[in-house]
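Give me the fold.
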Amino acid sequence: MSLQNTAQMPGLIGRLREAKGAFVKNQSLRQWLKAQSRNGCRIDREIALTGQPSRFDLIDAGARCIIERDVTIWLSPDEGGDPRLVIGEDAFIGRNTYLGVYQPVTIGRLAQVGAYCYIISASHRFDRRDIPIRMQGFTGAPVAIEEDAWLGTHVVVLPGVTIGKGAIVGAGSVVTKSIPPYQIWAGSPAKFLRERPE
């Protein structure tokens, strides 16, 4: 073996380890997707699991739920987190949505989450000036989108928010406080518009 080949070995070994890790991760994802398919779910193979990418035990997907392509699910590995994602039966999550799960996130039965939404149960801490914000960790609170609620496209839902049963949030809204059942809200920050008709 030449000296040049010897120098390249550590890089090659690292790439082989990465490839093996990616294969195992993809195999675990395929097995999980197959199990969800048997439960009637339609979950696109192009979803991304980050943070704790192999912790499928932290995700409870109800029967017949639909998760479209390019959805990202971040299951926080950070101290103080309690990452659990519950998706109810017949719930729908649109493409390119980001689910940031530091504290529990619940998407209820028959709920609809439009494409490009951002739902997060964590916020960066910023208590100190002597430590960069990104190194201060997180604080957070559970998020719940209750049964039959509908979030339009590009909605942002912040930590601690509950969107009540049958509520509607207009496209492009930023939801900073909880919404009672059967109300329609929109705006940035989202504000009450009217009640849904009975």
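The chain has a mean pLDDT of 90.
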